[in-house]
Amino acid sequence: MIFREAGQFKSSYREDEAHLVLREERLFVLAVTLFAAVVVPAIAGEYLLRSILIPFLIFALATIGLNILVGYTGLISLGTAGFMAVGAFAAYKIATSFPWMHFGIVFVLAAVVAAVVGIAFGLPSLRIKGFYLAVTTLAAHFFIEWTLTHFGWFSNYASSGVISSPPLETFGYVIDAAWERYLLCLGFLVVMTVIAKNLVRSALGRSWMAIRDMDVAAEVIGIPILKTKLLAFAISSFYCGLAGALWAFVFLGSVEAQAFDIFRAFDVLFMVIIGGLGSIVGSYLGAGFFVILPIVITNVAGLFGGAVATDTLASLELVVFGGMIVFFLIVEPFGLARIWELAKEKLRLWPFPY
Amino acid sequence: MQFRKVAIGVTAAAMLAGSAQAAEQFIPVAAYWTGPYAAGGSAFGDGMADYYEFLNIRDGGINGVKLTYEKCETAYKTDRIVECYEKMKNNGPTGSPFYHPFSTGGTYAVFERAEADKIPIITIGYGRTDASDGRVFPYLFPALTNYWSQSTAKIKFIGSLEGGMEKLKGLKIANVHHDSAYGKETIPVLEEQAKKYGFEFRNFPVAHPGLDQKAIWLQIARQYRPDYVILRGWGVMNPTSLKEAARVRFPANKIVGVWWSGSEEDTRPAGDAAEGYYAAGYHGAGTDYPVIQWMMEHLYSKGKGSVDQDRLGTIYVNRAFAMAMVGTEAIRDAMKMVGENRPVTGPEVQAALEQLTFDKARLEKLGAVGLLPEFAMTCQDHEGGAPVRFLQWNNGAWTSASDWIETDQSIVRPMVEKSAAAYAAEKGITPRDCGA
């Protein structure tokens, strides 16, 4: 009833192939985007923007990247944090070597570097599958981390190995305020989401899914396995590299290998699983669940004002969060995206379910 | 009517609370009670909070201004350290007067935004070494002493064990370090000292987390055969090193640890293997200081305070008290400088930190003679030139193994200034004129 399909006719192939078929959906997405772009920066405080929303946007970007690899192509990867680190350090090296370059170009170039590294570490995926591939990408993670901490060249020989990122300057204007940084991340995320959404519906996206569902059959019907898998690695790493550059430059303001430890890779993988494998909207939901929920738990418990000791509270956060992950996976093994789909179905039928 | 009365009562209570809050000084306490480094983090967070609580109970705060604090869990993760910073920076009537990130990575992530927010970042014994140059880093205070200074004191201590700096010539020193940015930070200063004193050293990196060191210690004890080992570890790496050293019969009293390798949490798990092991510290150990006795009297004996009683006198808890004192004394000085007993702001505390002096008289007043060294910070020098002290692990307790040893600023300061100047050039910062 709320999603009212009656009277919405598709009279061309173009309309039939649109991303959002229903008018209600289009309006909803438009409203959310406008809300995020106009209302949120106007009303949200600095804490909300800087500490919650910016990490959420960046993680959503990384999750979309990993989802392309895990959800759409069926290749399990634990190298996300490593590729993010490549993006961050590449952006730092490019930005300090060519200070005149616009940071947008720097970020894209850094993401390209991450994509190249991703291709190199994607090569084993041609022979190995499943958990074995996960282990090789784990090796990739440690190799990248080791390289970045061991060779001073990557950090411009800074004595502590932690380096501070150059300012984000565009045409003489320095992006610094929380809402400016937020909008920058949002802009990148929106553009990259539209690209991802189109990619997974293209011939390439269908090839990915064919490989995921049965790679032998995909090969038989003429899908080039080598090219398709490596493209998945490249594009996934491109997203992760971009997310890493944003994480270092826009969120943290410093570049360090420890910010991209193995737990970061697990986090992003869990976001993909919780959000829903093979779903772009699920990437958003998973990232939201992972970034926002722990902070909400802490702040809600904090409202009880000192009744809970800080160390108990810190452990409580982990317990509640872990419990919710288990709960969601039992109730809905296909992730939050599936719940989202069911909600939309319900909205179509409401108030007369059958 | 009933409702109206209640409403008036609530409003009045809120106003009272508001006016009471106006005379309170808020201090953020961000530390890590969970995660791999919780042993240190819980002591830092709880110990600092306990010291603030103690001042409230004994003196009613600082000059009558009550201290309030909020604890925030960072799990030693850089993003959470930033989150805690952002959450608490505007709390209380004046916002955060200062912030302790308790992690080197966290220091890098917050110090630039803190400079914009005008909140001093205090990083005692960690963080950015070149921030000792206050001309380039006005809001960053690696107070007391830094890693490079510590390294010079360590070599002096080894010299004193040998019976003179000239005896260092021809000695072999193995630098067993955590293979991370933190672990490698002292290599350049060791190179300088090796040149100056004529000793030889070799680096032995240990991969994180450092549970497997068999091959390294075999190599040290059988091949390299150094006269001394410098242990620059962190977390579980430290007890493992001590145990492996004992296994290859390398004497523990030839191992000198840094101040992140010298706590009870590092030596107790190693058992007998740690007997005789030396470690650096920028504060004393044990409970034999008036201030800790006062805290026991006013706080712990009454069942208050969040640090476990049996942890009192341990290195990490004493370190927390020492760090808390630097902050509270800066607040005290700031009140004196503004001439008013009221909550102070970040810029006021920054000005106070730039003249903060812990001399004999102040240490006596604090009851912290021997717990903290004397030091004095200036606009130019955000380190303060505190000496370093060495402790030895004997029969299950840290005992003093040396007097306060002065650091060699003739080596450190030029390196600090060079590094700070490089940072200033990279960022396009014009160093402040400190009137020197």
From TrEMBL, chain A:
Protein name: Branched-chain amino acid ABC transporter permease
Residue ranges crossing the lipid bilayer per the database entry: 27-45, 51-70, 75-94, 100-123, 130-148, 181-200, 230-250, 262-281, 288-307, 319-340
Any one Gene Ontology cellular component term annotated for this protein: plasma membrane
Main location: membrane
Subcellular location: Cell membrane
Topological type in the membrane: Multi-pass membrane protein
Record keywords: Cell membrane, Membrane, Transmembrane, Transmembrane helix
PANTHER family noted in UniProt: ABC TRANSPORTER PERMEASE PROTEIN (PTHR30482:SF5), HIGH-AFFINITY BRANCHED-CHAIN AMINO ACID TRANSPORT SYSTEM PERMEASE (PTHR30482)
InterPro entries attached to this UniProt entry: ABC_transp_permease, LivM-like
Pfam families to which the protein is assigned, alphabetical: BPD_transp_2 (PF02653)
Keyword Membrane attributed: yes
GO molecular function: branched-chain amino acid transmembrane transporter activity
Organism: Minwuia thermotolerans
From TrEMBL, chain B:
Signal peptide per UniProt: 1-22
Domain Leucine-binding protein: 27-396
Alphabetic keyword roster: Signal
InterPro entries xref list: Leu-bd, Peripla_BP_I
Record SUPFAM superfamilies: Periplasmic binding protein-like I
Pfam families registered for this protein in UniProt: Peripla_BP_6
Protein family according to the UniProt entry: Belongs to the leucine-binding protein family.
Protein name: ABC transporter permease
Taxonomic lineage of the native organism: Bacteria, Pseudomonadati, Pseudomonadota, Alphaproteobacteria, Minwuiales
